[in-house]
From TrEMBL:
Natural source organism: Rugosimonospora africana
Family: Belongs to the prokaryotic molybdopterin-containing oxidoreductase family.
Domain Molybdopterin oxidoreductase as annotated: residue spans: 122-491
Name of the featured protein: Formate dehydrogenase subunit alpha
Cofactor names: Mo-bis(molybdopterin guanine dinucleotide); [4Fe-4S] cluster
Entry GO terms, CC: membrane
Chain positions covered by the region annotation Disordered: 1-21, 759-779
UniProt keyword Iron, yes or no: yes
GO molecular function: 4 iron, 4 sulfur cluster binding; formate dehydrogenase (NAD+) activity; molybdenum ion binding; molybdopterin cofactor binding
């Protein structure tokens, strides 16, 4: 295998490992959050910008999808450290200009790290890479749209194009984008949800009839028990800790279920309260279940079995609102406790104690995120959570419910707006209003899109935001698939990996970010977003745009549509001129959006209807909430192997790498680390600090390799290792996905660690699969 020297210092030579921190946030968090802003925006712009964050009349945080408190209850600084970093990343004063592209050939950019690419600043002008060229060159907007439009018009079928969306896109842009794709003739609308909470959507649709969570922020505050499963809120949803703290002050108990003892879950120092600035803060979790990766289905089956044994079920709820209870109860009679203990790695006593807390609670919420959704058995595991909540009657009751905690700030809204590879129920109504045909074929999801590109069935890839080349699994396969396209187009704010994996022709279309003023013909526009708890509200950009050449996402979609569908009778130009016209269409067809304009104009926004939450009405085929029988399969880990999961560091937003530290886990100046329990290291005969390759092993006998990781002894659950995404995506084959949701199984990878051959360059070699040693870009 070729070991390549990196183009620049990835920092890993200076990697240091300290003791993990015991608690999250506090004054340290605020200072850490402000530092990138000060460095990238300066003092005045930082202060002005951050004061608008999450305030009425200001912009919605481009970080995560955690909700804001109601307008009257907001603090002056209603944001967290990572929200401030997300804003700094967008509001930076650094710029990527045409001169930048003239100075850096694509071949060079492709060898730069994700961190370096992001650090170059905001994209400022449309760029094209023509066949055979070595550099991106400027192109006018008109020529860019004509290029995309003529290519799309020239395809044999609209299904030869795929239109990807990342979850930062506003409701208005998302609605227009799916309208365009459908009017053009395809349902090929893969999105980041396919890699994120798709498993939650599929499972909940089956059990309660709607793929969204059933709680509000107020419910979190009123719960008497919160179970936080497979989630690291201290890093990924920091203000969720404030909500958990409020719940605790109101008397709630908290159970954390996680292979890693994440700092924020265990203790929290609230920076908005003086007592949080000093001292050790609030102990959050009352009980910590250090579960093995993949043990959740077994855990919740064990909970259900105990609750049934104790008669601790809400019989009247079960009788009135559910179906399938008898079969479910019968199935659990055969529960094999030996399997439960193997799968979870927990003792029977630990499980019984936690189950007792469930039995005692009159208002329980279960929250979860990526620890549950990215495994082969994700959908069954989430259905099992739903089963337990149904047993106890914990849906449609104040302070109780099911709470998938979404990632991207508008990922839930994008789905509501019809960004989906299947057809929303309201699509026929839209089609008849605007006179187009509903495309007949089901569209491709993310993994299917990669496969179709590889096979030549998809020839044009269009990405509205995101970083498809880096976020997806099977890095080499995905990159080859993108490179095989006739045309790739990325609507982006920042330079990223996807721009360095061009199709035969490639376009970069730079757009406004959410923080920026969006002026159109009818005046300044605002957009709307939906948070994780179905609350919809307006977001007003206020900053001066990073460049005068930027277009809004809405304008880009509108012009794309006009260039592609010249005879279209849909009023694309009117939508671009005044976003109220888009909201009018949304209000006319999407349930729950009646009187949209008036309801977002007030600032407070509104919460979308959710029949199970609001009325215990379950829009399933049976009209009841469904108990579903799930089979418990214990993953066998061969001797000498570990079950690897991939996590986010505290200094990244998905594929955007803000910095090289992961403070809470004690990692500084580097990312190529693999966390392993010290007892496992001893059993494997590998010393802490050893440089290893991570090799994943698959049932077809194939292997994939990521090279040059430093082993860090860490108190993870036994037999379970962790490393960062996207560096580890090279290890996951396209075929390894969750049942039913087709989400890449990036959190259960059987691996062995191989001490790396000692070379001159330490910890910097590019990831590569065993099949090829093409550099994947140092991470
Ligand atoms: N700052 C910041 N914020 C973000 C993001 C970011 O990258 N940076 N990303 C956003 C996005 S898109 C998303 S989807 C969310 C992601 O939010 P999270 O889901 O919190 O993100 P991960 O880092 O993937 O963390 C997964 C957690 O699940 C645990 N886990 C892994 N496997 C298992 C398992 O089998 N069982 C259990 N019980 N736990 C397990 C891991 O130890 C880890 O604590 O965050 C959003 N917010
Ligand atoms: N191994 C592994 N893989 C994973 C995961 C994991 O946990 N482990 N998590 C998965 C998850 S949960 C997700 S959500 C996906 C994320 O997949 P994506 O959403 O595709 O990736 P991001 O890194 O969030 O996208 C970052 C890019 O978005 C662009 N961008 C930022 N803001 C805007 C904007 O306002 N408009 C536009 N047009 N562009 C913008 C910038 O150019 C930036 O480079 O990754 C998935 N991949
Ligand atoms: S919790 Fe999420 S939405 Fe709220 S300020 Fe932090 S990053 Fe932004
Ligand atoms: Mo996500």
């Amino acid at each position: 295998m070729v070991r390549k020297a990196p183009r620049e210092d990835t920092g890993d030579e200076n990697l240091t490992v300290r003791r993990p921190e015991r608690s999250a946030a506090g004054v340290g968090g605020v200072i850490h959050g402000l530092a990138p802003g000060l460095a990238q925006m300066g003092v005045r712009r930082s202060a002005r910008t951050l004061l608008k964050l999450n305030q009425v009349g200001g912009f919605d945080c481009p970080g995560c999808a955690w909700p804001e408190p109601a307008p009257g209850k907001r603090h002056h600084a209603e944001f967290c450290e990572n929200g401030a970093k997300a804003v700094a990343e967008e509001a930076t004063l650094r710029r990527v200009t045409a001169e930048f592209f003239a100075a850096h050939p694509v071949s060079e950019l492709s060898e730069r790290s994700d961190h370096w690419l992001g650090q170059q600043g905001r994209l400022t002008t449309p760029m094209v890479l023509r066949p055979g060229s070595t550099h991106y060159a400027p192109i006018s907007w008109d020529d860019a749209f004509e290029l995309v439009g003529s290519t799309l018009r020239g395809l044999d079928s609209p299904d030869q194009a795929a239109f990807y969306t990342s979850g930062r896109t506003s409701n208005e842009a998302a609605f227009l984008y799916q309208l365009f794709a459908r009017a053009y003739g395809t349902n090929n609308l893969p999105d980041c949800s396919n890699m994120c909470h798709e498993s939650s959507g599929v499972a909940l649709t089956e059990t309660i009839g709607i793929g969204k969570g059933s709680v509000t922020l107020d419910d979190i505050h009123r719960a008497s028990l919160l179970v936080v499963v497979g989630q690291n809120p201290g890093t990924n949803h920091p203000r969720m800790l404030t909500a958990l703290e409020t719940a605790k002050r109101n008397g709630a108990k908290i159970i954390a279920v996680n292979p890693l003892p994440e700092a924020g879950l265990l203790r929290f120092r609230n920076p908005q309260r003086p007592s949080g600035v000093i001292g050790d803060g609030t102990a959050l979790a009352d009980r910590y279940l250090q579960i093995r990766v993949g043990g959740d289905l077994a855990l919740f089956q064990a909970f259900a079995s105990l609750l049934l044994e104790w008669g601790a079920i809400d019989k009247s709820f079960v009788d009135t609102y559910t179906s399938g209870f008898a079969a479910y109860r019968a199935d659990l009679e055969d529960l094999d406790w030996a399997d439960v203990l193997t799968a979870t790695g927990l003792s029977r006593e630990e499980i019984v104690e936690a189950a007792r807390m469930l039995a005692m609670s009159d208002a329980t919420i279960v929250c979860w995120a990526m620890g549950l959704t990215q495994r082969r058995d994700s959908v069954p595991a989430i259905r099992e959570i739903s089963n337990v909540q149904l047993l106890r009657g914990m849906v449609g009751k104040p302070g109780a419910g099911l709470c998938p905690v979404r990632g991207h700030s508008n990922v839930q809204g994008d789905r509501t707006m019809g960004v989906w590879h299947e057809t929303p129920k309201w699509l026929p109504a839209l089609a008849s209003r605007l006179d187009f045909e509903v495309p007949a074929r089901r569209g491709y999801d993310t993994v299917e899109t990669i496969r179709a590109m590889r096979e030549g069935a998809v020839r044009v890839f269009f990405g509205l935001g995101g970083n498809f080349a880096a976020a997806t699994p099977d890095t080499e396969v995905t990159r080859a698939a993108l490179a095989a396209c006739e045309l790739t187009v990325h609507v982006s704010t920042k330079l990223n990996r996807s721009h360095t994996v061009p199709g035969r022709t490639a376009l970069i279309l730079p757009c406004l970010g959410r923080t920026e003023r969006d002026a159109q013909r009818s005046g300044d526009q605002f957009v709307t977003v939906e948070d994780s708890m179905s609350a919809v509200h307006a977001s007003h950009g206020t900053l001066r745009p990073a460049s005068e050449h930027l277009l809004s996402e809405v304008a880009i979609v509108s012009r794309l549509a006009r260039a592609t569908l010249p005879g279209s009778t849909i009023p694309w130009a009117a939508y671009e001129d005044d976003y109220r016209a888009i909201r009018e269409q949304i209000a006319a067809v999407v349930p729950g959006f009646g009187d949209y304009e008036a309801r977002v104009a007030t600032g407070a926004g509104f919460t979308l209807p959710h029949p199970p939450r609001d009325r215990r009405q379950f829009p399933t085929a049976s009209g009841h909430a469904n108990f579903v029988v799930n089979r418990l399969e214990v993953t066998e880990i061969p001797a000498g192997r570990l079950l690897l999961q991939t996590v986010r560091s505290h200094d990244q937003y998905n594929t955007t790498i803000y910095g090289l530290d992961d403070r809470y886990r004690g990692i500084h100046n580097g990312r190529r680390v693999v966390f392993v329990n010290p007892d496992d290291l001893a059993a494997l005969g590998i010393d802490d600090g050893t440089l290893v390759d991570i090799v994943s092993e698959w049932t077809d006998g194939s292997e994939r390799r990521a090279t040059g990781f430093r082993v860090v002894g860490y108190p993870s659950a036994r037999g379970c290792a962790a490393t960062y995404f996207p560096e580890a995506n090279v290890l996951v084959p396209l075929e390894s996905t969750a049942e039913r949701s087709n989400t890449p199984a990036s959190k259960s990878i059987i691996v062995r660690l191989e001490p790396a051959p000692v070379g001159p360059v330490v910890g910097s070699a590019s990831s590569s699969s065993s099949a090829t040693s093409t550099p994947a870009g140092p991470a």
